[in-house]
Amino acid sequence: MEAREQKGLEIAAKSRLTREGNTWLVPSQAGKGKYVVDSDAKQCTCPDFEARQATCKHIFAVEYTIQREYTDDGETQTYTETVTVKKTYKQEWTAYNEAQTHEKDRFLALLADLCRGIEEAPQPMGRKRLPLADMVFASAFKVYSTVSGRRFTCDLKDAHSKGYLSKAPHYNSISRYLENPGLTPILKALIEQSSLPLQAIESDFAVDSSGFSTSRFVQWMHAKYTEPHLIQRRQFIKCHIMCGTKTNIITAVEMTDGFEADSPKFGPLVETTAKTFTMQEVSADKAYLSAKNLQTVVDHHAQPYIPFKANSTRDNRWAGRPAIWKSMFHLYHYNSERFMQSYHKRSNVETTFHMIKAKFGIALRSKTKPAQINEALCKVLCHNICIVIQSMYELGIEPTFWSN
């Protein structure tokens, strides 16, 4: 709604308009008397109309009044105000209850199925190692349980008795394997693989990052109001994800230090997702705004929705901007309602992080950096498996992994 139209609505709501045949007397907002509006010819005696010869706020006010109070034959009618109600979505409680009550059994079966695709590295000599698939299963299952390693021992024995493990490892062995940097690419591959059952469901995606706090502290110099003193804050690592906006499944993930920039991780997330998903829209906040990121989405046959910053203007660099930058700039500024319809899907990535942290904790137990990264990746993997289980009951999918 343009400014004149909005002011016309205010006049129609707050002022009394008098009708005399086809003409109307409309009060001036500045208190300078009344203007005459011809509703048929759409003409007004105000200076704005005389200068522009286009619809002014007084004509808009008359149109709103006619629409609100009069029928075609000139008789007054009762006006009923329309109230916009926020759209809500019904919860499929039957499917939700089934998924939640059977989640743990389904989780173990799906996790074991995923781990069967892990290739065991050859060991020509030395003491025989624990199977890598068993250790990845145990690590992810421990994160899912949210308990300490010692209290997790009973769950390990139970999983072994059900045939998911060839041998129940010691709780210290799980901690040692989590410290192995070689586990990181394996967990990322499992996360990507766990998202594939929802290929046919997801086409719109959102990108964002969030931090997981650690048990380590870092010193800061606090100098507010000229009183510098040392304070301690928890260190954290940052998790960058791309997720589907319908089911909250995570299709790609990157891990960085807590203070690394978000924008450089946008491209790898898009490229990883594009390998297995057909993308139509990708939404992200202003932190990811760059011509390179916009072009990356377009190169994968999708439409980016990243809002522009306050200092993004048509400056002297405008001629050198890529076409996608100019196109999205005009859409954002001149058709913001259409832009926001797609951009607001980005809020689903916030929901995704809330789901992970509410269920598996906002903090990491591990002490070393590689173990912290692997523990965070285990949280993401557990989240994906839970989403697949929910989709089994709500959407009727039958997940299969490593089919290719």
Taking the sheet with the most strands, its summary is: 5 strands, mixed
What percentage of amino acids are in beta strands?
Answer: 15-25%
Measured between the Cα atoms of the first and last residue, the distance is 52 Å
Helix content: 40-55%
Total strands: the figure is: 9
User: Which runs of at least 5 residues are low in confidence (pLDDT < 50)?
Assistant: 76-86
- What is the number of helical segments per DSSP (H or I, 4+ residues)? 15
Number of domains in the coordinates? 2
**SSE string, helices as H and strands as E:** HEEEEHHHHHHHHEEEHEHEHHHH
Widest sheet: strand ordering: 7-6-5-8-9
Give the averaged pLDDT, no decimals.
Answer: 86
Query: What is Rg?
Result: 30 Å
Shape: elongated
Class of secondary structure makeup? alpha+beta
Characterize the structure shown:
- The chain is α+β, with helices and mostly antiparallel strands and 404 residues long.
- The protein has two domains: 3-69, no CATH class; 96-120 and 130-404, no CATH class.
- Helix content is 43%, strand content 16%.
- It has helices at 3-14, 47-52, 57-69, 93-101, 103-115, 132-145, 153-161, 171-178, 183-195, 266-274, 291-299, 323-334, 336-343, 347-360, 369-394; strands at 18-20, 23-27, 34-38, 43-44, 204-222, 229-244, 250-257, 281-283, 303-305.
- The strands form two sheets. A five-stranded mixed β-sheet has the order 7-6-5-8-9, sandwiched between helices. Strands 1-2-3-4 form a four-stranded antiparallel β-sheet, covered by helices on one side.
- The longest helix is centred in the last third of the chain and has 26 residues, at 369-394.
- The two termini are 52 Å apart.
